UniProtKB/TrEMBL annotation:
PROSITE patterns: AMP_BINDING. PANTHER family: ACYL-COA SYNTHETASE, ACYL-COA SYNTHETASE SHORT-CHAIN FAMILY MEMBER 3, MITOCHONDRIAL. Residues 59-444 form the AMP-dependent synthetase/ligase domain. Keywords: ATP-binding, Ligase, Nucleotide-binding. It holds the Pfam family AMP-binding. Residues 3-57 form the Acetyl-coenzyme A synthetase N-terminal domain. Residues 510-589 form the AMP-binding enzyme C-terminal domain. This is Propionate--CoA ligase.
Amino acid sequence: MRYEDVYRQSIEDPEGFWAEQARAIDWHVPPQRILEYTDPPFRRWFAGGLTNLCHNAVDRHLAARGDQLALVAVSSETGTTRKISYRQLHREVNTFAAALKSLGVGRGDRVVVYMPNMAEAVFAMLACARIGAVHSVVFGGFAAHNLALRIDDAKPKLLIAADAGMRGGRVIPYKPLVDQALAAAVSPPPHVLIVSRGLDPDPAWVQGRDVDYAPLRARYEDAEVPVEWLESNEPSYLLYTSGTTGKPKGVQRDVGGYAVAMALSMRAVYDVGPGQVMFSTSDVGWAVGHSYNVYGPLIVGATSLLYEGLPTNPDPGIWWKLCADYGVRTMFSSPTGIRVLKKQDGAWLKKHDLTALKWLFLAGEPLDEPTAQWISDGLGKPIIDNYWQTETGWPVLTLLPGLDLKPVKFGSPGLPNLGYKLRVIDEVTGADAAAGQKGVLVIEPPLPPGCMTTVWNDDQRFLSSYFSHFKELLYSSLDWAVRDEDGYTFILGRTDDVINVAGHRLGTREIEESVATHPSVAEAAVVGVHDALKGQVPVVFATLRQATADTPESAASGMLQCVVDQLGGVARPARVYVVNALPKTRSGKLLRRSLQALAEDRDPGDLSTLDDPGALDECRRALERGP
Ligand code: ATP
Ligand code: MG
């Protein structure tokens, strides 16, 4: 099937297109109307339909593939591998659901899940879905403050936490963080359900509040919990955005539209079907983890490989060993993840038999061409960029190899995904930007199925954050983009990441791309810093590859040369700071806003999503030392 034809149908006849897609999932009661759009931009897909995510992800596969692996949970931290068939998954989820019910959790109640990439995190999510409870998974690496903020926003009936996580062999007990978060929260839940892996031998138990999952699991080992049939537009889960640009937003997802979008994207984008294996390196706490570690693969009857551990532990070949061991067909990771490997010897990419691997998808951040080229050459596999947001839940821009693979253009995530009516809008005039002209990437509503329905408990914030930027009612992605003559879209960075040098508007992304072409550079962040003469000047913070012959000074002058050669003198960075680490969010995104604040001697602002505070300190010291 030609992409162009299917895409056109999805835009010109959305109801016909989505009615057909809806057949890919099970409905207890079929939708009464495919689209209800009486209160724009709010929309209701598959209105009146009754369905359930857990039923579609688990129960409906029992007959045909009960003994097939549903989940393989590998931890290089605990040294364990758990292989879970669909039948076993069904068992575990029913038991977990019974435990939730015994704690008074029911339809519409929120449940915060604070766990690392372990099988029970998946059981917990699916158990919530089964009984109609709304899960909100909080990344296990977040500290007490972040957890408390999300608890206060979601007001959960229950918090489910692991006893501890591990990172690089170090045990990080969760219990003290949970206790701190609940002490700080305004509306703490009455119970905390602790799933222990025996990593924290002596957790301080709060009588009456904390509940150990082990005895509940034993008590409900044979329990059968019926699926709660939900109207398609009831909330399925909440997920907070990464907080790269400010206070995280509680993205709310529906049931039916999400299930249908998952089924479609697994087939058309990720090219994974029943019985095939997908490995996403994401944490379950991120949007990719929800969609492509849990719901997507399970909804289509595939096997999901879940990995807890560093990409370099026990050695930098671990991801590829897992691909070889389990016959992974599609792998999904992030540019940040690949840049970690790029610091290491490329020979690690060649050590394992990757015959079964067809595609490597990358998303979450701009994929710079040198990184794409490095991994593409190293693996000898197609690298497929895909652009999306927590808000959208599934790719907005990508190539669709499961449908019709168009040529890869490095630097572009590709073409509009099915159902997405995308435009690039001139920020000032509000008119459509011509090919080659820079503008803001927007989605013309109604947003397709799978995308957020609103901001949790805050319709007003949904409207003001996303739909109030233009005269026309349009969803702003808050990202800059440019489209070429072939319709490929290039993402130029966030709308608040533009540098204005003496009247020239430069995307930080463009300069970062250019700096990254220097062979010694592992990763670069460019920010605009106030300058009395020029308004703003670009400043570079960069890390170097391990095996470089360059000194920081020679690398820095090489970087400047790259920018001047490729973008011209106007883009020449004013200063280059070579550092050992760059500040990132816990999801691996560069925190440019805090670097910019440091460089302008301002308060770096909300750092609650910062991964490694040491990295920011180092940049501060580098600024004090001078370039
Ligand atoms: P917040 O919205 O709270 O500031 P965030 O935008 O980092 O956080 P996410 O939803 O995790 O939260 O990230 C989505 C953003 O990541 C996109 O809007 C875009 O800026 C960037 N992004 C994702 N994938 C790509 C990609 N393939 N190419 C370029 N940028 C990407
Ligand atoms: Mg965002």
